[in-house]
Amino acid sequence: MESYRQFIENYTTLSDKDWKQISMCFEKQVVEKDEILLQEGK
Q: Is 14 left (phi over 0), alpha (psi -120 to 50) or beta?
């Protein structure tokens, strides 16, 4: 949890545009992980 806090603190200086790009990357990774899990579950 400490590393997560440091991650947030390190990125609080980013602009909204940067945040949107990062969140899009995270969302894409989450979707890919979900798709992989669904495929493995079949």
A: beta
Give the model's confidence band at 1: pLDDT under 50 very low, under 70 low, under 90 confident, else very high: low
Using DSSP's 3-state secondary structure scheme, residue 20 falls into helix
Query: Over the stretch 11-39, which tens digit does the pLDDT of each residue have?
Result: 777 777 887 887 887 877 777 878 877 88
Give yes or no for a contact between 14 and 22, defined as CB atoms under 8 angstroms apart.
Answer: yes
- The residue type of 37 is L
CA angle 37, 23, 2 (to 5 degrees): 85
